[in-house]
Amino acid sequence: xxxxxxxxxxxxxxxxxxxxxxxxxxxxxxxxxxxxxxxxxxxxxxxxxxxxxxxxxxxxxxxxxxxxxxxxxxxxxxxxxxxxxxxxxxxxxxxxxxxxxxxxxxxxxxxxxxxxxxxxxxxxxxxxxxxx
Length: 132
Prior knowledge:
Blueprint lengths: L2 E5 L2 E3 L5 E8 L8 E6 L6 E6 L5 E3 L7 E6 L4 E6 L8 E8 L21 E3 L3 E5 L2
Parallel strand pairs: 2-11
Antiparallel strand pairs: 1-3, 3-8, 4-5, 4-9, 5-6, 7-8, 9-10, 9-11
């Protein structure tokens, strides 16, 4: 059974930083594209960032220039460092892992609940809130 366990969320003032972590159990990062999505209440499932099996990152428009994704395969962990946080970054952040080779290319924003997308394994989510 695959489990993705996120940590690192919290309440932070605008301009502050957070680092999210996601530890994977039962999944090999060599065979999966890992990523971060976020979803605010009433909003779409928004791709924040993803990283390929060989470490090539990709970012959604809202993350470019502010967020950095990385992975440590020895720890089976993917990270998201978020700098210069804004009120609009408030959301639940989900770690995702592609289930199949085809799903590696499926990262993108879309309507509906993130957790209903069966192409990915999902973590339980971690809340990031603007405290300004």
